[in-house]
Amino acid sequence: MSIYNFEVKTIRGEQQTLAPYEGKVMLIVNTATGCGFAPQFKGLQKLHDDYQDRGFAVLGFPSSQFGNQEKGSDSEVAQTCEINFGVSFPLYSKINVNGSDAHPLFKHLTNEARGVFGSKAIKWNFTKFLVDRDGRVVKRYGSADEPAKIEKDILSLLS
């Protein structure tokens, strides 16, 4: 199944697929506004702002699976992201990223780009997946990987 066929729900409750991002480079991130890594929202937004005109998008998928650090409703999450972190990149409805009820998109991402020691499981919030213009998952980054560190990899896919 192509990554563009996965159905997702926007943070405002609209069903769609990832088809609008076909031909773009994507950085798909599981997020949580209450996480210690939440300051990365600003770096993610900067990447999105700097390169969206060149065919790049950050896609945020809130999750409560790690320490219940995403407590609010989807509308509360959207408001917190906008007010506290200046987020305008696309956000989606809260999902699970691990386990049997993990969202199919994240099952695909974790199967295509394994973590440390080949593990599939996401260890914490702000795990990031870089997807090329052809929809291939090319790299996985851990929670501690700052968005600025990923910039050179994004640029290589945009050129």
Automatic annotation (TrEMBL):
Pfam families: GSHPx (PF00255). It comes from the Bacteria. Residues 1-159 form the Thioredoxin domain. InterPro entries: Glutathione_peroxidase (IPR000889), GPX_AS (IPR029759), Thioredoxin-like_sf (IPR036249), Thioredoxin_domain (IPR013766). The lineage of its organism: Bacteria, Bacillati, Bacillota, Bacilli, Bacillales. SUPFAM superfamilies: Thioredoxin-like. Belongs to the glutathione peroxidase family. The active site is at C35. GO terms for molecular function: peroxidase activity. The keyword Cytoplasm does not apply. GO terms for biological process: cellular response to oxidative stress. Keywords: Oxidoreductase, Peroxidase. This is Glutathione peroxidase.
